[in-house]
Amino acid sequence: MAQYKITVDEDILKGLFTGDKGMSQLLEQVLNQVLKAQASEQLQAEPYERSEERKGYRNGTRPHPLTTRIGTLTLRVPRLRNGSFSTELFARYQRSEQALLLTLVEMVINGVSTRKISAITEELCGVDFSKSTVSELCKRLDPVVQAWNERNLRETRYPFVLVDAIVLKIREEGRVRSRAAMIATGVNEDGYREILGMMLGDSESQASWTEFFSWLKSRDLRGVDVVVSDSHSGLVKALQAQFQGATWQRCQTHFMRNFLDATPKHLHDELYGKVRAILDAPDVATARLLMNQVVSDYSEKALKAIQILENGFDDITAVLSLPERYRRRLRTTNGMERLNEEIRRRDRVIRIYPNRNSVIRLIGALLMEMDEKWQSGHKYLDMKEYFTWREEQKKQAQQLSKVSQLR
Questions:
Q1: Are 28 and 15 in contact (CB under 8 A)?
Q2: Torsion of the alpha carbons at 218, 221, 227 and 232, rounded to the nearest 10
Q3: Is the pLDDT of residue 109 over 70?
Q4: In Å, how far are 82, 253, 311, 376 from 42, measured between CA atoms?
Q5: What pLDDT was estimated at residue 10?
Q6: How far apart are CA 386 and CA 189, in angstroms?
Q7: Residue 195 near residue 181 (C-beta atoms within 8 A)
Q8: Backbone dihedral angles phi then psi of residue 36, each to the nearest 5 degrees
Q9: pTM over 0.85
């Protein structure tokens, strides 16, 4: 990643504490310096520098307004004589910001906003928005988000998939209704995380989850070996029907909450440590020995909790069959929870979405931005050991099959 040397005017720094526009002025100055530095990188020469490596010349700048939640910034995008200047500095950021803005404006136009929302919109835009303006902006943004959310997944396999849902409030037919935004992320065969897609369902029912998984499969999702989720009954039943042969790992964090809810309070600390030892066991056999000991010691003291442990044992320890390096990442849906927190940051601004399209636009733009960040960052997992392990598992299965045939 390139490093840029940034200078900031003293007056702007003072404005951070004394003025209302200090933050926007600071960000505007920094971004313009980054654009200038990127132009030097592409030309391989500083302004007025004589260099044999120079690939072209500057031709002034053009203003480019960038709407953010701290105001509208004016960026001075460099022009080049022998070609076009390219940057992704604000393109990705703009999508989610524009989606947030459009949702706020849509609320104003539909008459469901408060004066506070109107004030936020005016502060962000600097101008009034008409229905035609909003419609035109949506025409530009919606196809981009929709194309990403419905992209074909055939180019790679996704051995590990994590799924979760977040409940949002949407105004439909004059009433506010709770709807489930179902989201799937995956780890591809190269070890990078991807957001596979989002779909709105009427609820977290088996029918909604079945439709979601069918949709993912229709986009050529393949190679799924392990699926991680909570134990919502509709979700689990849909998983078993749609991903037969895949291993289901129940989120250990959600399980521990359920277990402790059924545990007498005076035994919380004691049993938490013992169950934690089961989950951290080196293999399934050791985990089962530890569980049997807990069952023997606490069956009478915490009967309901022990029943939950026995019933859920196979599902919460499924990850122990994998090589050790993959267990920590795949034993919970904590990664999904962090993604949900980012969604909630936007959701707290909107509170009630004016329609379903606004949800797809806002949450989809955010997920698209996060997906690009994940794929351009570091690998989430090194998959070499996993594929070696898979080959060994197949060979062992083949040998066992031959032995059984001989018998």
A1: no
A2: -20
A3: no
A4: 11, 48, 61, 20
A5: 67
A6: 9
A7: no
A8: -65, -40
A9: no
